[in-house]
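seq:
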Amino acid sequence: MRATANKLYRRSTGEASKYLKDMWGIVRAPATMAGDAMEGRGPPYILVGGRACSTQDMLDTWAIEQLAAPPSAQAKKIKRTKRRKRTTGATEKKQEANAETGGVVS
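struct:
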């Protein structure tokens, strides 16, 4: 049995991020941790009153796993998503004009 209570760290207030940085040197913004949780890459959490919280044991276990994994294994876990290129109205008009003229600019 542990001598101290297992404290809960809230993700949304940055408590979990601060703990990981201070204790393990792992830098994660609260928003990054939320995104990682949605993709199953972040530390485990429980919902307490509708808020995502992790216990100290959960954070410690996750941090040890992250630090023990070789960098190539960590990179494979990250899913790269393709970003759509945004176009402005002016760019779309140029593209239409190029399509109509066959790319010839007058």
